[in-house]
Amino acid sequence: MRSRREVDVASLVGQAREGSPRAVARLVSLVENAHPALREVMAALAPHTGHAHVIGLTGSPGVGKSTTSSMLVRALRARDLRVGVLAVDPSSPFSGGALLGDRIRMADHALDPEVYIRSMASRGHLGGLAWATPQALRVLDGAGCDVVLVETVGVGQSEVEIAGLADTTVVLLAPGMGDGVQAAKAGILEVGDVFVVNKADRDGADATAREIRHMISLGDRSEPGLWRPPVVKTVAERHEGVEEVMAALDKHRGWMEERGELRRRRVRRAAEEVRAIALERLRARMGDLGEGGRLEQLATAVADGQRDAYAAADELVAALA
Questions:
Q1: CA–CA separation, 235 vs 167, rounded Å?
Q2: Antiparallel, parallel or unpaired: β 83-89 and 231-233
Q3: What residues does each domain of the chain span?
Q4: Could you write out the DSSP letters of every residue in 279-296?
Q5: Do 197 and 174 touch, CB atoms closer than 8 A?
Q6: What is the topology classification, in CATH, of domain 50-258?
Q7: Which DSSP letter does residue 306 get?
Q8: Model's pTM, two decimal places?
Q9: Cβ 150 vs Cβ 137: under 8 Å
Q10: What are the pLDDT digits (tens) for 123-159?
Q11: How many whole angstroms separate alpha carbon 44 and alpha carbon 98?
C-alpha cells in the first residue's frame, strides 16, 4: 500500500474542486481502498461539504433504475447543475469489482465534464450499498456536485438502507412485477419520499399507481404536516414524465428546508457515519486481541463455563479502552 506521503492531498482536493474528473476518481479510489491518507482527505474536504442534494434511487432489478438515473442527469444538466452518480453494482465473485461499468451504464453523459459517474462494488454488503458509499458521497459533495444520485443494486428488504443515506429517496416500481406488494413487504413504503411507476406505457401502470397511493393512504403519512409522497408515472426510455419527477423532487426539498427536516436527516446521517467509523476502528482493535490474544482466552473461558459471556465482554471492552 502506498504511503501517506505519496499522496498530495491538497493538490488532489484542489483539482477536484476545479472539476477534474481524474482527481475525483483518485479520491474515490482512496476511499474504496481505505488508503492511509483517507483521514487527511476527509479533513481537507470537510469545509466544502454539506451542499449537494443527495437523491437515492432504489427498486427491484428490472424497473429501470439506470435509465431513470440517465433521464434525471439530463434534466439536472439542463439546469446547469454539476451532477455526481454513484451506481452501486453487484460484485464480481472473482475480482470483487463492480460487474457493470459506468461507460455501459450512462454512455450519453460520459463525455460531459460536469457529470461524474462511478460504479462501486457492493462487495457482498447486504444493504446493496458499498461500505465506502458515505465517504464517496462526501468526495462528490466536496468536489462541488450540486446533486448526487445514488443508485442501489436492488436486493430486496435491505434496500431501505438507502433512506439513511439520502436526502430524498425515490422508489421505482414497474407494472406487472408485483412491486406494490413487494414494496409493502420490504418496508419501502415507509422510507420512500417519491414513488415513480416507470414503464408506464405497459398495461397495469395505472393500477400499480393506484395500489401504491392506496397503501400510502393507509399509513401515517396522512397526518397534517407530514410529507405525503407523490406517485409519478414515467417512461424513462423516452424521457416521458421527467418534468413531474423533477417537480416532485423540488417540492420535497422545499418541504424539508421549510421544516428543518433536511438538517435533521443530515445530522442523523453524519451520526451513522461516525458510528460506523468508530465501530470499524473497534473491530480492528479487537482483531489485534484475537487469535492467540485476550479475545481467544476469554472465549475459551466462556466455552469452558469458567466465565459468562457478559463478564467476558466487559473485560474485552476494558482492554480496548
A1: 24
A2: unpaired
A3: 1-48, 50-258, 271-320
A4: HHHHHHHHHHTSTTSHHH
A5: yes
A6: Rossmann fold (3.40.50)
A7: S
A8: 0.84
A9: yes
A10: 444 443 456 788 899 999 999 999 999 988 665 544 5
A11: 28
